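>> received
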Amino acid sequence: MRILLAALALTASIGAVQAQESDLAKYCKADIDRLCQGIQPGGGRLMKCLKAHSKEMSVGCAQALQKMKG
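>> returned
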């Protein structure tokens, strides 16, 4: 029973992370295209770029990033 509950909790956590990443892709694509043009994805480079341009990013992207932190 404990294993089943742990598996369900893990599945819920993975689903939440995937939803956050989906929000990030949805709300930050235009900002990434505009602010981080030429930055190679991976290794946290896009996140670093977005954080460096936090004052210039859209409200939706900023909110999606905030959700990922929480």
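>> The first helix runs from residue 2 to 35.
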